[in-house]
Write a structure and sequence with these properties.
By secondary structure, the chain is mostly beta strands. The chain is built from no helices and ten strands.
Length: 109
């Protein structure tokens, strides 16, 4: 995983074997929230802290400017913590009708 900051946020590139995908994270207009964009999809999250780290609580999803109805929104679970000088994370994404789409875990120095 690589993180590249820019004037508006950060581009995160995740590599899996010979493939990779990138997303762009930036602060949301609403205090305490941030957005992650994959092409036309934009996900809004809130970071909720706990004793071990934090969770990215999924709040909303848009396709372009249009909010996705709750029935079509993916289910996202994301958790992160810092341990031994490393950022450790796990993510799982499921679709309402298709089930688990992908899951991954890793660490970043």
């Amino acid at each position: 995983m690589a993180v590249a900051p820019d004037a508006e946020g950060e581009t995160w590139t995740r590599a899996f074997g010979s493939g990779a995908f990138s997303s762009h994270l930036r602060p949301s207009r609403e205090m305490g929230r941030f957005e992650e964009r994959f092409g036309p999809l934009c996900f809004t999250f809130e970071a909720e802290t706990d004793a071990r780290g934090f969770r990215w609580r999924f709040v909303d999803c848009r396709f372009g400017p249009l909010p996705l109805p709750r029935l079509l929104r993916p289910r996202i679970r994301a958790r992160a913590l810092e341990a031994d000088g490393m950022y450790r994370f796990s993510v799982a994404v499921a679709a309402p009708l298709a089930g688990l789409l992908f899951a991954y875990a890793g660490r970043l120095r």
